[in-house]
Amino acid sequence: MLDAQGTIFGSFSLNAAESVDVAFVDGTSGVTEVHINVLVGTVTITVFGQTRTLSEGQPDTFVLDVAAPVIGDALDVTAEATSASGAAVAFALPTVSDDVDPAPTVIAIPSSGTVFPLGASTVTVTATDAAGNVGTASFNITVRDTTAPAIIGASISSTSLWPANHKMVDVAFAYRVTDAVDSAPMCALSARSNEPLSGTGAGDT
Description:
With about 200 residues, the protein is mainly beta. It has strands at about 10, 20-25, 30-40, 40-45, 50-55, 60-65, 70, 75-80, 85-90, 95, 105-110, 115, 120-130, 135-145, 150-155, 175-180. The chain is rod-shaped, with a radius of gyration of 36 Å.
């Protein structure tokens, strides 16, 4: 099938037993609609990049598709880091609609499940319909570290210092610190006493 300028916009093949009625609707930019009515048989027809198989008694209309798919709201995502590399983040693709193509091809780059680094990253969603029209949208994925380090296996060699004689006593304190993101978290150890610094009892000053 050719428009007035000789541009091919559709095609189909018939055998001797098949018959098709074709009607064109011209717009300002050439043929914009093609009405197909299969009179005899079953025919596979491609028009404007859209392929359909039609049978007799099932008229159909092919519409020139010049509008890009519409991508719905793409919501930002926040995830907690699971390692120094960031986090593997799964997300759902936004909804996509198109005036002509019922199932545009939708991809996201980077894809769902990718390990995203700490901080904000942009995901670009692209929807392409059968006519080659492209719609795009984007959203942000933010990976953050809000989980405190964990102190594991804390133990002390002595839980009581007695008698109160102002003599120094060695006390060993053991512990281990882990963090999902920071391999060497900063640690500080302090000690305090539940006894007064000075008093009236023996050994006090």
